[in-house]
Design a protein that fits this description.
It is a single chain. The protein is α/β, with parallel strands linked by helices. It has 2 domains: 135 residues, Response regulator (Rossmann fold); 59 residues, Orthogonal Bundle (Arc Repressor Mutant, subunit A). Helix content is 53%, strand content 13%. The protein contains 10 helices and 5 strands. α7 packs across α9. The protein is elongated and about 60 Å long. It starts with 5 loop residues before the first strand and ends with a helix.
């Protein structure tokens, strides 16, 4: 008896890639597409109603971004695995996506050769990544790590700001959560970057997570 195909949704605004994903999955007996969306907003509503096993998500979408979509869905659909499929290679996007709850990050130039493999991998507990992305992750984990117990001399407000940054909040959302202005958020983050001796959001997140893991 043929096993029931696992369910996957697609969130991709580029019609060529969207049709390509559909063709690849249609050729597989192991997966079935249960939703295909151009915008994150429509995907959010449908996936919350009936979460599939996996979701293929582009980052750059009209309106809500793919990263924001994952950050909204993952807490409410913890069993669903999110595979980011994108052209973005910069470290900030990678770590924002992973912090938001993505399980894998595959570049579009690689996806045709490994889409089904990557979907199988995320369901098996893996974290599939294009080799260029995996190298960036390794390089960031090789950043100097502070000694355990070092709190970077952050103020309480700076710690609160950094906690929200690690959770994937954007500047506007941090300002709303803490009841402060966006320029005040930027001021706090400037101090945080200086104290942590980093230059980007992803480096700040990684260094803070290293400290938490060792404390």
């Amino acid at each position: 008896m043929q096993p029931t195909p696992r369910r996957v949704a697609i969130v991709e605004d580029d019609s060529l890639f969207r049709e390509s994903f559909l063709e690849i999955i249609a050729a597989s007996d192991a997966w079935a597409v249960v939703g295909c969306h151009v915008r994150a907003e429509s995907a959010l509503e449908d996936i919350l109603l009936d979460p599939p096993e996996a979701v293929i998500v582009d980052i750059q979408l009209p309106g809500m971004s793919g990263i924001e979509l994952v950050r909204k869905l993952k807490p409410q659909c913890p069993a669903t695995q999110f595979l980011m499929v994108t052209v973005f290679e910069d470290a900030d996007k990678v770590f924002e996506a992973l912090a938001a709850g993505a399980s894998g990050y595959v570049l579009k130039r690689d996806v045709h050769a490994r889409l089904l493999e990557s979907l199988d991998d995320v369901l098996a507990g893996g974290a599939p990544m294009s080799s260029a992305i995996a190298r960036k992750v390794v390089q960031h984990f090789q950043l100097p790590v502070p000694e355990p117990g070092d709190d970077f001399q952050l103020t309480q407000r700076e710690k609160e700001t950094l906690d929200l940054l690690v959770k994937g909040f954007f500047y506007k959302e941090i300002a709303s959560e803490l009841g402060i202005r966006i320029d005040t958020v930027a001021f706090h983050l400037g101090n945080i970057y200086r104290k942590l001796q980093v230059r980007t959001r992803s480096e700040a997140i990684l260094k803070y997570m290293h400290r938490e893991a060792k404390s």
